[in-house]
# Entry
Amino acid sequence: MTAGSAPLVKNQKRALAFGIAAVGLWSTVATAFKIALTYLSPLHLLFLAALISTLIFFLLLMWQGRFRETMALGRQRWLFYCLQGLLNPFIYYWVLFAAYDQLPAQQAQAINYTWAITMALLAVPMLQQRLSLRELVAMVVAYAGVVLIATGGHWDFSQTNWLGIGLALLSTLLWASYWLINTKNTDAPIPAMFWCFAFGTIALAVAVALDPRPLPWTEWRAWLAAGYVGMFEMGVTFLLWLTAMRTAEKTSQLSMLIFLSPFISLLLIYSILGEVIQVSTVIGLSLICLGLYLQRKST
# Structure
């Protein structure tokens, strides 16, 4: 058995440690996105971050001795992963970064947390599932929070950045679609993620080549920002969470950690970005989390 491929022993304390680390890192990404977007366009940020993330997955596969297995998977299912790579990271993250470019971080990150609600909604036509009354109530509560955040609590729709809100909501649709498509995918997660990002990065390289704006190759701050996003939003954090889920004796304790992330994120947005956190954002985010909680209790 190769290094890194040994079976994971169930250990709740270890799982919680990995889960807390993952949630802590996820809490930083909204702030990291906004900082990175001061040096890079959404497309350039995505290309550099995806490139770095692909390299991380490649190095991990080499360390695990799974290179041949991964190459075989790529040859067998290249079309599937080419399409997957177009969806994530190409389209999903481009839309998400564009939303962050348009909106305050507190609005974009709060709306992004509704993707689980969106996934339940999409599961009706895609997986032929039915919505329970509790799930419908959860959706109403969560999207009431979105409306509150979008309007700032003033209900003045003329002041709402509909482009930014629309992009943020579209990102939840794309992310939910990606995970629903993968519900029946039995391929090992790390090789699968490698091929998604590899094909996605190739598509992004073409998009960057067609973009008239030059990529700031010599701007070290741009590389640092993109490196952080690629490592902790797209790469390492996924692996931490995957390890936590596979070593957990009770996944319910892990799932509750997710609700800490958006509020920790707000603290970072306030302390690092200097955004004044609106009361409407806190209330709206609380409604979104309540909707997510109601949805989880119904499953």
Q: What stands out?
A: The two ends are 37 Å apart (CA to CA). The chain is about 75% helix and 0% strand. The longest helix spans residues 78-102.
